[in-house]
Amino acid sequence: MNDMKTIKEIIEFEKKLAEYEGEDQIISSQEMAVYLTETYKEKRNLNLQSGIQSLDDRIQSFEGGELTVISGPTGNGKTLLAQTITAYFAEHENHSLWFTYEVPAYQFLKQFGELCPKFYLPKTLAGNTLAWLDERILEGKLKYGIDAVFIDHLHYLIDMSTRLNMSLEIGKVMRYLKKLAIRYNIAIFLMAHLEKTKADIEPDVGNLRDSSFVSQEADNVFLIWRKKKNPTQAVLKVCKNRRLGVMNYKCHLEKREYLLKEDINAVMEN
Protein backbone atom coordinates (compact mmCIF):
# COMPACT_ATOMS: atom_id res chain seq x y z
CA MET A 1 0.00 0.00 0.00
CA ASN A 2 2.83 2.36 0.91
CA ASP A 3 4.60 1.54 -2.34
CA MET A 4 1.47 2.44 -4.31
CA LYS A 5 1.23 5.76 -2.48
CA THR A 6 4.85 6.49 -3.28
CA ILE A 7 4.32 5.76 -6.95
CA LYS A 8 1.22 7.98 -6.98
CA GLU A 9 3.17 10.82 -5.35
CA ILE A 10 5.97 10.45 -7.89
CA ILE A 11 3.49 10.61 -10.78
CA GLU A 12 1.82 13.73 -9.34
CA PHE A 13 5.19 15.35 -8.68
CA GLU A 14 6.41 14.68 -12.23
CA LYS A 15 3.12 15.99 -13.65
CA LYS A 16 3.56 19.16 -11.60
CA LEU A 17 7.09 19.63 -12.95
CA ALA A 18 5.95 18.98 -16.51
CA GLU A 19 3.43 21.82 -16.19
CA TYR A 20 5.60 24.11 -14.10
CA GLU A 21 5.74 27.76 -15.23
CA GLY A 22 7.57 29.47 -12.37
CA GLU A 23 10.33 32.07 -12.42
CA ASP A 24 13.04 29.41 -12.58
CA GLN A 25 11.39 27.09 -15.10
CA ILE A 26 13.48 25.50 -17.84
CA ILE A 27 13.09 27.25 -21.20
CA SER A 28 14.74 27.13 -24.62
CA SER A 29 17.50 29.44 -25.76
CA GLN A 30 15.08 31.12 -28.16
CA GLU A 31 12.59 31.76 -25.36
CA MET A 32 15.41 33.10 -23.20
CA ALA A 33 16.42 35.56 -25.92
CA VAL A 34 12.85 36.89 -26.10
CA TYR A 35 12.61 37.04 -22.29
CA LEU A 36 15.83 39.01 -21.98
CA THR A 37 14.81 41.42 -24.74
CA GLU A 38 11.47 42.12 -23.11
CA THR A 39 12.73 42.23 -19.54
CA TYR A 40 15.88 44.27 -20.06
CA LYS A 41 15.00 46.43 -23.06
CA GLU A 42 15.45 49.55 -20.93
CA LYS A 43 18.54 48.26 -19.15
CA ARG A 44 21.63 49.81 -20.68
CA ASN A 45 24.70 47.75 -21.42
CA LEU A 46 27.48 48.79 -19.07
CA ASN A 47 30.85 49.15 -20.76
CA LEU A 48 33.47 51.03 -18.77
CA GLN A 49 36.95 51.84 -19.93
CA SER A 50 39.96 52.44 -17.71
CA GLY A 51 41.49 55.34 -19.61
CA ILE A 52 44.73 53.37 -19.96
CA GLN A 53 44.75 53.06 -23.73
CA SER A 54 46.80 49.89 -24.18
CA LEU A 55 44.76 48.12 -21.49
CA ASP A 56 41.48 49.19 -23.08
CA ASP A 57 42.75 48.05 -26.47
CA ARG A 58 43.32 44.56 -25.08
CA ILE A 59 40.35 43.95 -22.78
CA GLN A 60 38.03 46.48 -24.48
CA SER A 61 36.08 47.37 -21.33
CA PHE A 62 34.79 46.38 -17.93
CA GLU A 63 31.22 45.16 -18.24
CA GLY A 64 28.31 45.01 -15.83
CA GLY A 65 28.41 41.74 -13.91
CA GLU A 66 32.21 41.48 -13.90
CA LEU A 67 34.41 41.10 -10.84
CA THR A 68 37.96 42.44 -11.20
CA VAL A 69 40.74 41.70 -8.72
CA ILE A 70 43.65 44.14 -8.43
CA SER A 71 46.64 42.80 -6.54
CA GLY A 72 50.35 43.38 -6.10
CA PRO A 73 52.99 43.78 -3.40
CA THR A 74 52.15 46.10 -0.51
CA GLY A 75 52.65 49.76 -1.43
CA ASN A 76 53.12 49.06 -5.12
CA GLY A 77 50.11 50.87 -6.55
CA LYS A 78 46.94 48.77 -6.15
CA THR A 79 44.90 51.60 -4.67
CA LEU A 80 46.51 54.16 -6.96
CA LEU A 81 45.45 52.15 -10.01
CA ALA A 82 41.90 51.92 -8.66
CA GLN A 83 41.89 55.69 -8.01
CA THR A 84 43.09 56.30 -11.56
CA ILE A 85 40.25 54.20 -12.97
CA THR A 86 37.78 55.98 -10.67
CA ALA A 87 38.92 59.39 -11.92
CA TYR A 88 38.46 58.30 -15.54
CA PHE A 89 34.99 56.94 -14.77
CA ALA A 90 34.01 60.24 -13.15
CA GLU A 91 35.30 62.19 -16.14
CA HIS A 92 32.94 60.16 -18.33
CA GLU A 93 29.99 60.39 -15.91
CA ASN A 94 30.20 56.82 -14.67
CA HIS A 95 29.51 56.75 -10.95
CA SER A 96 31.71 54.86 -8.50
CA LEU A 97 31.10 53.75 -4.91
CA TRP A 98 34.12 53.21 -2.66
CA PHE A 99 34.61 51.12 0.47
CA THR A 100 38.06 52.09 1.70
CA TYR A 101 38.83 50.15 4.86
CA GLU A 102 42.59 50.67 4.92
CA VAL A 103 42.69 54.45 5.39
CA PRO A 104 40.24 57.00 6.87
CA ALA A 105 38.07 58.96 4.47
CA TYR A 106 39.90 62.29 4.85
CA GLN A 107 43.23 60.64 4.05
CA PHE A 108 41.74 58.77 1.11
CA LEU A 109 40.26 61.92 -0.43
CA LYS A 110 43.55 63.73 0.08
CA GLN A 111 45.27 61.11 -2.08
CA PHE A 112 43.40 62.46 -5.12
CA GLY A 113 44.84 65.94 -4.71
CA GLU A 114 42.95 69.21 -4.98
CA LEU A 115 40.89 68.14 -8.01
CA CYS A 116 39.18 65.18 -6.36
CA PRO A 117 36.79 63.47 -8.80
CA LYS A 118 33.16 62.91 -7.87
CA PHE A 119 32.39 59.48 -6.48
CA TYR A 120 30.46 58.11 -3.52
CA LEU A 121 31.27 56.42 -0.23
CA PRO A 122 29.52 55.63 3.07
CA LYS A 123 29.54 58.50 5.56
CA THR A 124 30.92 56.00 8.05
CA LEU A 125 32.08 52.44 7.47
CA ALA A 126 29.60 51.05 9.97
CA GLY A 127 29.99 47.47 8.83
CA ASN A 128 31.89 45.01 6.71
CA THR A 129 29.46 42.12 6.46
CA LEU A 130 28.29 41.00 3.06
CA ALA A 131 24.68 41.89 3.97
CA TRP A 132 25.71 45.44 4.94
CA LEU A 133 27.76 45.78 1.75
CA ASP A 134 24.82 44.54 -0.33
CA GLU A 135 22.51 47.11 1.27
CA ARG A 136 24.89 50.02 0.73
CA ILE A 137 25.47 49.04 -2.89
CA LEU A 138 21.73 48.89 -3.51
CA GLU A 139 21.37 52.29 -1.81
CA GLY A 140 24.05 53.71 -4.10
CA LYS A 141 22.40 52.16 -7.13
CA LEU A 142 18.98 53.60 -6.28
CA LYS A 143 20.19 57.07 -5.23
CA TYR A 144 23.04 57.72 -7.65
CA GLY A 145 22.93 55.10 -10.40
CA ILE A 146 26.20 53.49 -9.32
CA ASP A 147 28.12 51.81 -12.15
CA ALA A 148 31.22 50.57 -10.32
CA VAL A 149 32.14 49.53 -6.78
CA PHE A 150 35.68 49.55 -5.35
CA ILE A 151 36.51 47.55 -2.22
CA ASP A 152 39.88 48.02 -0.53
CA HIS A 153 40.46 45.26 0.40
CA LEU A 154 39.26 41.63 0.40
CA HIS A 155 40.48 40.60 3.84
CA TYR A 156 38.35 43.27 5.54
CA LEU A 157 35.34 41.23 4.43
CA ILE A 158 36.71 38.10 6.11
CA ASP A 159 36.54 37.25 9.80
CA MET A 160 40.24 36.66 10.36
CA SER A 161 39.53 34.93 13.67
CA THR A 162 37.30 32.34 12.06
CA ARG A 163 38.04 28.73 12.76
CA LEU A 164 36.55 27.77 9.45
CA ASN A 165 38.63 27.03 6.37
CA MET A 166 40.02 30.42 5.25
CA SER A 167 40.15 29.42 1.60
CA LEU A 168 36.49 28.38 1.60
CA GLU A 169 35.49 31.57 3.43
CA ILE A 170 37.24 33.65 0.75
CA GLY A 171 35.56 31.57 -1.95
CA LYS A 172 32.18 32.35 -0.38
CA VAL A 173 32.92 36.08 -0.38
CA MET A 174 34.14 36.02 -3.98
CA ARG A 175 31.01 34.23 -5.18
CA TYR A 176 28.80 36.65 -3.25
CA LEU A 177 30.50 39.66 -4.83
CA LYS A 178 30.16 38.11 -8.27
CA LYS A 179 26.42 37.66 -7.69
CA LEU A 180 26.14 41.30 -6.59
CA ALA A 181 27.87 42.44 -9.77
CA ILE A 182 25.40 40.48 -11.87
CA ARG A 183 22.32 41.40 -9.82
CA TYR A 184 22.97 45.15 -9.94
CA ASN A 185 24.64 45.27 -13.37
CA ILE A 186 27.78 46.86 -11.95
CA ALA A 187 31.52 46.33 -12.26
CA ILE A 188 33.14 45.43 -8.94
CA PHE A 189 36.85 46.06 -8.31
CA LEU A 190 38.38 44.24 -5.37
CA MET A 191 41.85 44.88 -4.02
CA ALA A 192 43.59 41.76 -2.71
CA HIS A 193 46.94 41.08 -1.08
CA LEU A 194 49.75 38.91 -2.35
CA GLU A 195 51.76 36.47 -0.32
CA LYS A 196 55.29 37.61 0.35
CA THR A 197 57.42 36.84 -2.70
CA LYS A 198 61.10 37.14 -3.46
CA ALA A 199 62.07 40.53 -4.85
CA ASP A 200 63.57 39.06 -8.03
CA ILE A 201 60.55 36.91 -8.91
CA GLU A 202 57.68 38.33 -10.96
CA PRO A 203 54.39 37.78 -9.10
CA ASP A 204 51.56 35.76 -10.62
CA VAL A 205 48.06 34.59 -9.69
CA GLY A 206 49.56 31.72 -7.73
CA ASN A 207 50.86 34.30 -5.27
CA LEU A 208 47.42 35.63 -4.33
CA ARG A 209 47.04 35.31 -0.59
CA ASP A 210 45.11 32.55 1.20
CA SER A 211 42.93 31.10 -1.55
CA SER A 212 42.94 30.03 -5.19
CA PHE A 213 39.27 31.07 -5.27
CA VAL A 214 40.38 34.71 -5.62
CA SER A 215 41.55 34.12 -9.17
CA GLN A 216 39.08 31.35 -9.99
CA GLU A 217 35.98 33.43 -9.26
CA ALA A 218 37.25 36.71 -10.76
CA ASP A 219 36.60 37.75 -14.35
CA ASN A 220 39.77 39.86 -14.46
CA VAL A 221 42.94 39.58 -12.41
CA PHE A 222 45.46 42.43 -12.57
CA LEU A 223 48.83 42.56 -10.85
CA ILE A 224 50.78 45.78 -10.45
CA TRP A 225 54.28 46.37 -9.12
CA ARG A 226 56.77 49.24 -9.10
CA LYS A 227 59.94 49.13 -11.13
CA LYS A 228 63.07 48.82 -9.02
CA LYS A 229 65.07 51.42 -10.94
CA ASN A 230 62.32 54.05 -10.82
CA PRO A 231 59.60 53.76 -8.15
CA THR A 232 57.42 56.27 -10.00
CA GLN A 233 57.06 53.72 -12.81
CA ALA A 234 55.07 50.50 -12.63
CA VAL A 235 54.15 47.41 -14.61
CA LEU A 236 50.51 46.40 -14.91
CA LYS A 237 50.00 42.76 -15.84
CA VAL A 238 46.72 41.25 -17.03
CA CYS A 239 46.93 37.74 -15.61
CA LYS A 240 43.37 36.79 -16.48
CA ASN A 241 40.59 38.16 -18.64
CA ARG A 242 37.72 35.70 -18.87
CA ARG A 243 35.72 37.40 -21.61
CA LEU A 244 38.45 37.73 -24.25
CA GLY A 245 41.02 35.29 -22.91
CA VAL A 246 43.79 37.87 -22.53
CA MET A 247 46.61 36.53 -20.37
CA ASN A 248 50.05 37.74 -19.32
CA TYR A 249 49.76 41.06 -21.14
CA LYS A 250 51.80 43.90 -19.64
CA CYS A 251 51.60 47.65 -19.97
CA HIS A 252 53.82 50.29 -18.43
CA LEU A 253 52.60 53.10 -16.21
CA GLU A 254 54.08 56.06 -14.45
CA LYS A 255 52.82 58.23 -11.62
CA ARG A 256 52.08 61.79 -12.62
CA GLU A 257 50.86 64.00 -9.80
CA TYR A 258 48.16 61.93 -8.09
CA LEU A 259 47.29 59.37 -10.76
CA LEU A 260 48.85 56.78 -13.04
CA LYS A 261 49.33 57.49 -16.73
CA GLU A 262 50.59 55.27 -19.49
CA ASP A 263 54.34 55.45 -19.99
CA ILE A 264 54.47 56.01 -23.74
CA ASN A 265 58.25 55.80 -23.75
CA ALA A 266 58.33 52.27 -22.37
CA VAL A 267 58.36 49.27 -24.67
CA MET A 268 55.06 47.41 -24.73
CA GLU A 269 55.26 43.73 -23.90
CA ASN A 270 52.97 40.86 -24.81
Structure report:
- A hairpin with a 7-residue loop joins strand 8 and strand 9 (249-256).
- This protein is an alpha/beta fold and 270 residues long.
- It has a single domain, classed as P-loop containing nucleotide triphosphate hydrolases (Rossmann fold, 3-Layer(aba) Sandwich).
- Helix 6 runs parallel beside helix 7.
- The chain is built from 8 helices and 10 strands.
- 35% of the residues lie in helices and 20% in strands.
- The mean pLDDT is 89.
- An 8-stranded mixed sheet has the order 4-5-6-3-7-8-9-10. A two-stranded antiparallel sheet has the order 1-2.
- It has helices spanning 2-18, 29-39, 53-59, 78-91, 105-110, 130-144, 166-184, 213-217, and strands at 47-48, 62-63, 67-72, 96-100, 148-152, 187-193, 220-226, 233-241, 249-256, 259-262.
The CATH topology comes to Rossmann fold
Order of helices and strands: HHEHEEHEHHEHEHEEEE
Number of domains: 1
Quaternary state of this entry equals: single chain
- Low-confidence sequence ranges: none
How are the SSEs ordered, and which strands pair?
Layout: H1 2-18, H2 29-39, E1 47-48, H3 53-59, E2 62-63, E3 67-72, H4 78-91, E4 96-100, H5 105-110, H6 130-144, E5 148-152, H7 166-184, E6 187-193, H8 213-217, E7 220-226, E8 233-241, E9 249-256, E10 259-262
Parallel strand pairs: 3-6, 3-7, 4-5, 5-6
Antiparallel strand pairs: 1-2, 7-8, 8-9, 9-10
Helix pairs in contact: 6-7
